[in-house]
Specification:
CATH class of the largest domain: Mainly Beta
Strand content: 35-45%
Largest sheet: 7 strands, antiparallel
Shape: globular
Order of helices and strands: EEEHHEHEHEEHEEHHEEEEEEEEEEEH
Number of helices: 8
Number of strands: 20
CATH architecture of the largest domain: Distorted Sandwich
Oligomer: single chain
Structural class: alpha+beta
């Protein structure tokens, strides 16, 4: 059942599908990792992500012994700082910027008796210093779109100020992949509306932004039958290589089965170690999700062999950390060419810029 729900912070009205929630197939949420809105539910989802955790542990087992480890965005459970110590690190420095999360981490650190092994610092990593510099930096600041949480800017600063010249970053690199898709079919033909459990997080994000805006649309468990083209990499962040926070990628995708296209689906591939295959968040069950970006005002029928040319321009937003993603597409079919674009901004005042957002925010 569809309802219209008014958010308490700013009066924005959102469309909610009340009988469609977590555990019931594909759902729509705002992308939340980019914002200071974490709660117990989100932390528990990260802590219980077996695939994610095993990849990070394997990298720490290989790289942490004997090193001074820096854990940026440690969270209330200090997951990777604690794991580093278990794996033989000589000491760990953990950083946390969110006030409530830091206070919880501080209490946990004392309760676990680890305050000799782990130094906990409060603040944004760009404002803090570490002496001596770290040999290894580990951080789970990777978004459903690879750079969405500011990993490019944060790791660039860490490598410059907080790490030794020979220091190593975990994860090794990550990429964002894109494919042409139809939102209605990605949602398994269900109504386009937010999940009820997304409402508190939308409220917090809009309050933080001091007003509503077109949040990125996080699709949990997308129906992959709605993805009708080949995929290609549109963002690459080599944390131990030539890391660039601003990028521009041009790719061409081919339709491989009959269907519809109205936008693109973006998802993450994460390489924890150079020698291991990546974690693919579209095909493997993890706490990361995909992000849908609308391009065209309505669904466009496509056949095998049709082509979608994409240009993705990534520029750092005015906060100096989080990127904006400008996606432009040209779809060439037997019935003509169609062009569309969308600016997916981290924050700001762009609101109801596309028919999808007009439906979600009626």
């Amino acid at each position: 059942m569809l309802i219209h729900h008014e958010l308490p912070t700013d009066g924005a009205v959102i469309r909610v599908l009340v009988d469609r929630d977590a555990g019931q197939g594909s759902t729509v949420w705002p992308s939340i990792g980019e914002y200071p809105v974490y709660d117990e539910v989100l932390y528990d989802a990260l802590s219980s992500d077996a695939l994610r955790n095993e990849r990070f542990r394997a990298a720490l087992r290989a790289l942490a012994p004997g090193r001074l480890v820096l854990d940026i965005g440690t969270g209330q459970h200090l997951n990777w700082a604690r794991e580093s110590i278990r794996c033989g690190a000589r000491h760990a420095v953990a950083m946390e910027v969110m006030d409530e999360t830091f206070r919880a981490a501080e209490q946990n650190l004392q309760a676990w008796g680890l305050d000799e092994a782990i130094t906990l610092l409060h603040g944004y990593s760009g404002d803090l210093a570490v002496q001596p510099r770290a040999d290894l930096c580990v951080a789970e600041i990777i978004g459903s779109i690879a750079g969405a949480e500011g990993a490019g800017a944060i790791f660039t600063d860490a490598r410059r100020r907080l790490m030794t010249d020979e220091g190593v970053v975990i994860p090794d690199r990550c990429t964002t992949r894109a494919a042409g898709a139809c939102l209605r079919q990605v949602l398994d033909r269900h109504e386009i509306a937010f999940s009820p459990s997304a409402v508190p997080h939308l409220t917090k994000i809009f309050a933080w932004n001091q007003g509503p805006f077109d949040v990125r649309l996080r699709i949990k468990d997308p129906d992959r039958r709605g993805v009708v083209t080949t995929s290609a990499m549109v963002e690459e962040l080599p944390f131990n290589g030539d890391l660039r926070t601003e990028q521009e990628q041009r790719v061409e995708l081919e339709v491989h089965r009959t269907g519809y296209v109205d936008g693109v689906l973006l998802w993450l591939q994460l390489f924890h170690l150079p020698s291991r295959p990546p974690l693919d968040t579209l095909t493997e069950p993890t706490s990361w999700a995909s992000v849908y970006v609308p391009l065209f005002p309505s669904e466009i029928p496509v056949e095998r062999g049709d082509r979608l040319a994409l240009t993705v321009v990534i520029r750092t937003s005015d906060d100096g950390i989080h990127p904006d993603y400008h996606v432009m597409g040209t779809l060439s079919t037997a019935n003509g060419r169609h062009t569309g674009e969308h600016l997916s901004a981290h924050h700001g005042r762009i609101f109801r810029s596309h028919p999808v957002y007009c439906a979600l925010f009626p």
